[in-house]
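Handout, section 4.2: multi-component inputs.
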Amino acid sequence: MIAETLYTGFGAWNPIVWLVAFAVAILLAWFIQRLGEPDIPGDGESGKSYISGNDEPSPEDGHIGGSNLYWGFTDAMKGYYARVVPLHTGCLTDYVLWFLGTFALLFIFIGVL
Amino acid sequence: MMDFIMANAPALLIAVPMLGAFALPLVGRLGDTPRNGWILAVTLITAIIAALLAWTVLTGGPVLYTFGAASSSDAIPADSGGIPIRIIFTVDAMSAFMALFAAFVGFITCLYSVASERLSSGKDGYYALMLLLLVGILGMVTTGDLFNFFVFLEINSLAGAALVAYRIDKGVSVEAALKYGFLSTLAGLMVLYAIGLLYGQYDSLNMAVIASRMSYTMLDKVALALLIAGLALKAGAVPLHFWTPDAYSMAPAAVTAFLVVASQAGLYGLFRVLFSVYGLTLNYVTVGWAVIILGVLSMVVGVTMAIPQKDVKRLMAYHAVSQSGYMLLGVGVGLVVLGDAAAMDAFGRTAMEGGIFHIVNHAMYKGLLFLTAGAIFLQTGTRNLNKMGGLGHSMKWTMLFFIIGALAIAGIPPFNGFASKLMIYESVFAFSPVIAVIAMVVSILTLASFVKVFHAIFMGPQQPKYADVIEVPRPMLVAMGALALLTILMGIFPEQIVSTVIAPAANALIDQSAYVATVFGGV
Amino acid sequence: MIENVPYFCAGILVIIGLVVIVTKKDMIKMVMGLALVEAGVNLLLVATGFISGGVAPIFTNAPSTAMVMPTVQAMTLTNIVIGIATTALLLSFVMVISKKYGTRDVTEMRRLKE
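Output:
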């Protein structure tokens, strides 16, 4: 029983054991990597990136920016986002109304039910 | 000297930063170095006092401090009819825990500001407001007096709003500050209205006295709804979160990291009112479910709104909303089973410990993430994820700290976010499996969105327009490193933290009679 | 019944203030609405301290009748001071925004949204 074990009431979590397992995995990875060639053979031509025979793109084109990522997720959730995003109108009056509405709902929840 | 500090620690906790704030314009005239030294000394001393106070509370039980009395046993004067006339600070384990990490984050953010705001003008006002924000937070978490709580809430709101507007930025940050200031003032006035209703019935402002006389009439229910709505707005729970992304994204990074703690003081107020003032008299199942619904809404709406964001700090702000949902969820589950001793022992206590543990974990990793975002903004001049890329080549330390913060917020072992989330998952699963599954899905979406941020900022080839970007100055790295170190340490030794600090804090909330006895017993 | 009039007035003042906040578009008028809410809260606080026939709590030469608890007066004064500070801060924000945006209309202060 190591003192670091965190009991959650149903299970336990020991970070030290986890870290030891992690270290073993890193050692294994390092060992496998050591089996490979230490350097690129030949004249260096084979060290260049191969993109289906196309030229390597410039640094600006070679990086996919923030909003292109997770396009699929937001597109699949279009119905949800079309409803939730417009609620953040940026208009202070709406925010005050949300506050009053939440108070009213809470009061119904607490006082009436 | 030492005895004096120990005996007056609750008062010094407020007095030292306040003195520091009001003396700052004078010290600032001496130049930059004396001002930096002053601000760091004041915040460090405050943090040390908070640590001493926390040590006293954790070893010797709750501390009672009566202002203007010869000794704290004069808390209730003999001829007052059982009503404490003076302002009383009641520092139990929960208060001490909040004060400790708030003071620590205050020191770290000021250390960061020394470097990040070194070229700004108006530094006297900036640091004075930072210290006043610290006063507001520390006062909110230590006071045992409802009106005093309101005063510190207003100090907190005003200092926070003024700090959000610190960089005018073509008026946009002033717009954010106006929304934040307006909504928190309105919420503060509603809280005061509730305090007036409670005072009118129970003739006292002291939380313990009100708790001992609480009869849960209709007026008390109105007051409770007003208090929950007002303090949930301050804590940024959905659907009252609208100011959060605006204020968090427009404030300077160090201020944002500190504003996270400021909203957690609102969360503390909410828990204090629910558990210590109302306690078992309220209909805890209904109110507990209200808190859980707020929490689940915050988690889901926060994380889904974060995913399509393009501004890195706005994205992180929505994650802050999402993470406070976990705290509401954990403590809400504890509230639902408050009157059921068997369920409380089976999972309620663990859920509350998880929720409270998450508060401090969130302050650490979210503060760290906002500080890294500020470092990137300082060096590149943009917060737009579409315009960044390849910064991992030039800002290696910032990248390392960002990875630590991102993995911690996503709940990846062995960082601290995992430990508290594990406690929440397992205890909530025993309560309601559906909510536990929602919590896990939210965690996965959090990881997904931080993978996006990491890729957009740090990965890819080095961009020509950022060729001359260099690493940030050393004080900023030290500040981020301290938070990163704590994030890791709290993840590797969770049981020590939980058993020494978190469990007493959860007990302090659950055990209402002990809170009442602290004041009446004249400890 | 008559002794409850201040409480009703306080509630009505708060509601008038809230109505002003949500119906007016001019930001300065919204801040005025907030000041009305604050006035209503102050009235509620002061009204809770009223004792019929009570005297000011000055112990020197006081008649031996009921005295008024001074806590609420202190609270109300504190809240008036806090209210002045918040109103001044919010109005100065409105001033900066109307200089930079050229409008005080709340529906046009929407550069931060979504």
